[in-house]
Amino acid sequence: MTTKVGVIGASGKMGSEVCRAVEADDDLELVARVVRGDSLGALVDSGAEVAIEFSIPDSVKDNAAFCLRNGIHTVIGTTGLTSGDLDELGGLAKKHEANCFVAPNFAIGAVLMMEFAARASPYFEVAEIVERHDKEKLDAPSGTSLRTAALMNEARTKPWDTPVGGKESLPGARGGEVDGVHVHSLRTPGSVAHQEVILGSPGQTLTIRHDSQDRGSFMPGVILAVKRVSSLEDLTVGLERLLDL
User: Fold this and answer.
1) Are 185 and 203 in contact (CB under 8 A)?
2) CA 225, CA 76: separation in Å to the nearest integer?
3) What are the backbone dihedrals phi and psi of residue 24, each rounded to the nearest 5 degrees, phi first?
4) Which one is catalytic: 73, 133, 182, 210?
5) Exactly one of 4, 94, 96, 137 is catalytic; which is it?
6) Which residue in 22, 21, 25 sits closest to 5, CA to CA?
7) Is 133 a catalytic residue?
8) Catalytic annotation on 182?
9) The whole model's pTM is what?
10) Torsion angle, CA of 104/108/111/116, rounded to 10 degrees?
């Protein structure tokens, strides 16, 4: 028996790739393609059991809330959700018995990069993250970099040795900071999704890097989440929750 799937943001670069991946899977049936200006009611009318959200940061929360209120399990790949947004969506998921799965990055390699960075974090004194995406990406820093920094901080029992003092002759040159981890965002044409984590201690550095050269790299993770979301509970964040790490 196939699972009926609707895609929100179906005309975008990621949404188009997701539609192709769903259509290529024998266990899934693409029943709705929602593009900007369309009514989300198409998801309900088509009988979609799972909605995949790849729209834009400004609309992701409202779109996901609509799905959950209508009993549709929701897989979210759009970044930009705050911790408060996640709490709200988790409450809706519980109330309406429709699960919500959120992943900053669906590439298996990216998830492993985050896992390795977290495991290494207790052994180093300083950490920096450099992420690069296409110039059309609407938010900065990326959800992946923020998730990476959060996992790294969770793995530590003491603060980072963050350099203090000095002078930025160009404001912002040191990037943003997430509890001691400096994050730098690059936006260049031709990029898909790239990130490296640099950890340092006296006399040594460790660099952990992942590159998605093509959007097809995200599809195995998306399909895995679509097939698993109905068996999860309320709100789940991070593809690592679905992997045996």
Assistant:
1) no
2) 9
3) -85, -10
4) 133
5) 137
6) 22
7) yes
8) no
9) 0.83
10) -160
- Written as tens digits, the pLDDT of the chain (245 aa) is 899 999 999 999 899 999 999 999 999 999 999 998 899 999 999 999 999 999 988 899 999 999 999 999 999 998 888 889 999 999 999 999 999 999 989 999 999 999 999 999 999 999 999 999 999 888 899 989 999 999 999 999 999 997 766 788 888 888 899 999 999 999 999 899 999 999 999 999 999 999 999 999 999 999 999 999 999 999 999 899 999 77
Positive or negative: CA dihedral 117, 119, 120, 121: positive
Contact, 207 vs 124, CB < 8 A? no
Contact 21, 53 (CB under 8 A): no
Indicate the pairing of strand 73-76 with strand 100-102.
Answer: parallel
Q: Which two tokens stand for residue 1?
A: 């028996």
For helices 108-120 and 219-228, angle between their N-to-C axes, nearest 10 degrees: 90
Q: What are phi and psi of 151, to 5 degrees?
A: -65, -40
Contact 130, 186 (CB under 8 A): yes
- Please report the domains of the chain, with CATH numbers, ordered by start residue: 3-102+216-242 (3.40.50.720), 108-213 (3.30.360.10)
Which amino acid makes up residue 186?
L
